[in-house]
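Reading group handout, session on sequence-to-structure problems. Before we discuss, look at one worked example. The prompt was deliberately terse, the way you'd type it at a terminal:

> structure Fibrillarin-like rRNA/tRNA 2'-O-methyltransferase

The input record follows.
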Amino acid sequence: MTGTDASLPDGVERRELDGDDRLCTRGPPEYGEPTDGEWRAWDARRSKLGGMLELGMDTGLSGGETVLYLGAANGTTVSHVADFAGPTYAVEFSPRPVRDLLDACEPRSNLFPLLKDARRPETYAHVVEAGCDVLVQDVATRGQADVAVENRRFLADDGRLLLAVKARSEDVAAAPDAVFDDVLADLESTYEVLETRPLDRFHEDHLGVVATPR
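And the output record:
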C-alpha cells in the first residue's frame, strides 16, 4: 500500500511497512531499516530532516535539488536525501563516521563525501558548486547559527536552509527555548525564517527551522 503526500518531494512516499505507515525513499538499505522491494523506511527518530517531514514542515523540497549537507555523520539521513535529490555534498568532520558514510556513497553516484569542518567552509569551497538549492544542517556544535551564516555562500538566493538546532550543543545548562531564540536572532541578518517547529516528538530539545536567504 502506498500513499502520495503533496508536502513530500518526488522520490519520497508513505508506504505500509510492518503494519505501519512509514516515510520511505527508494535506495539500498544502510542501517537495518525495514524495506519493501526497492523502498526503505526513513526512520524519523534517527533523522532530524525525517522528523521535519513527518511533522509536515514546508521544507520546499521537490526532488532533484542540489544539496549541501552539513553534519552528515555516518550517512543515515544524507543517504535518504541522495535517494531523491541531485548532486549531494556530505560534509562530516569526524573520521570515524566517515567510514560508514563512504559505504553509503558507494552505490550512490550523486553522493560526495567531504571530510571537512562545517565551521570552515573555505576548505571545501573549491569542491562544492555555488548556487545549491538546499542547505541541510545538523551539526552538534556551538555556534550553529554561525555555521549556517558562513555556509550561505553556497546557497542560491531562492534556496532553502533546513536547520536542526540542537539546544544542548549550544548550552547544556540553558533552557532550550532561550537557546532557540538566540540562534534565530543570530540568523536574522542573513536568513528570513519561514517556519519553526519543535522536533521533540522524535528528537528532544531540537528545533526544526526552514529559512531562505535575505
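Points for discussion. First: The longest strand covers residues 155-166. Second: Residues 176-187 form the longest helix (12 residues).
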